[in-house]
Structure formats: structure tokens, C-alpha cells
Design goal:
Length: about 200
């Protein structure tokens, strides 16, 4: 295992929004990659972070709790890279926080396939990436400047819009760390720009 260990990176602190949902799995994966992790429950905890993850969960609950704690406005003001997965993708779209130039339909994979796994082609990757989709959102509209990094059945499932990375699936639920690595690269790029 050691020779296949992912590259680690130290000195970056990533917040994981911990109001609801899959935050523990994201935190574990980021720690595995060498990042410091802070579980964020209050707006003031965003200060000094190099990046933020908005995990999967239940988006209506998420949005309600974020509003209650003032985290919606705090995330809008946050200037570093943000990684949203599943419900996190919904939270960031044009119809919600309006930070990523896309629109999604919630729970839009038919009942039969509400949850499924599929191999995805990852841009720049040799091996397929296993995507775990759990009542996933489906991209309905995508802005012209949004870069598609992975597709499923011809539809975008992992995209980048500037400092935002969003996935309709759950990269924190497999052992494959590549999507989180991609996010940490984005964080390093942005930290480099600021330095
Ligand atoms: N179906 C959920 C929603 O609409 C998202 C599912 C997930 O994050 N796993 O909020």
C-alpha cells in the first residue's frame, strides 16, 4: 500500500460544513491527504480557511440550517475554493446560493436508478473513477465557462467553475482520493495566487 499512497500535502486548512450529511467521510479523506480539517458549524469558523467542502445530505435541510446559522451569507462572502458534492452541488447552483453557473434537478434519476454506481471517465485520469450516486441531482443547464471533468451517459457529473468544484456523486464514499486531490490542487493554485 505504501508505494500507492496518495501524495500528501501539508499546511492547508480545509473546512467541512458540518451542519448535516456526509461531513465525517470528507474530513477523513482530506486528513488522509495531509490537510488540516475544521468542522464548520458557525460563520466565524470560515475565517482563515484555505477551502471549504459542502457535503452531500439533504439539501432542503441543509439550506434551512445554513440560513438559521447565517452560514448562507458567510459562504457567499467566502473567497477561497469550495467543493460541493451531491446536496452540496444543489446548495451552490443558480437557484440556491447562486455561486456556480449551473442549474440542477433534484432526485432526477428515475426511481429505479435513484441510487447506483457507475465508472466515470475522469479528465486527465487513466483509470475510471467509481461514482456513487445517491438520489443524485442531475445537471439541467450549464454555463458556458463551466469545465466538465467527468460525465455519466454523456451528462456532466463533475464540473469546475473557477474556484468551485462540484460533483453530483459521492467521491468521499470510495477509496479513490483523486477528486479530493483535484480539489486540493485548486486550493494550492489559489493559495499560490494569494501569496
Ligand atoms: N437527494 C438529496 C437532495 O435533494 C441529495 C442526495 C445526497 O446528497 N446524497 O438534497
Amino acid at each position: 500500500m505504501v508505494e500507492n499512497a496518495p501524495p500528501t500535502l501539508s499546511g492547508v486548512t480545509i473546512g467541512v460544513l458540518a451542519v448535516q450529511g456526509n461531513f465525517r467521510e470528507h474530513a477523513a479523506m482530506l486528513r488522509r491527504l495531509g490537510a488540516e480539517v475544521v468542522e464548520v458549524r458557525k460563520p466565524e469558523q470560515l475565517a482563515g480557511l484555505d477551502g471549504l467542502v459542502i457535503p452531500g445530505g439533504e439539501s432542503t435541510t441543509f439550506i434551512r440550517l445554513m440560513r438559521l446559522y447565517g452560514l448562507d451569507e458567510a459562504v457567499r462572502r467566502f473567497e477561497q475554493p469550495v467543493f460541493g458534492t451531491c446536496a452540496g452541488m444543489i446548495v451552490l447552483d443558480r437557484d440556491h446560493l447562486g455561486l456556480v453557473d449551473l442549474v440542477v434537478d433534484r432526485n432526477a434519476y428515475g426511481r429505479q436508478v435513484a441510487s447506483f454506481e457507475a465508472d466515470l471517465d475522469l479528465a486527465g485520469g487513466d483509470e475510471p473513477l467509481r461514482g456513487v450516486f445517491i438520489r443524485a441531482p442531475r445537471v439541467r443547464e450549464l454555463g458556458p465557462d463551466v469545465e466538465v471533468l467527468a460525465k455519466h451517459d454523456g451528462e456532466p457529473v463533475l464540473v469546475r467553475d473557477g474556484r468551485f468544484l462540484v460533483a453530483s456523486f459521492h467521491p468521499e464514499l470510495t477509496d479513490d482520493t483523486r477528486v479530493h486531490e483535484r480539489f486540493l490542487e485548486l486550493v494550492e493554485e489559489e493559495t499560490g495566487v494569494r501569496a
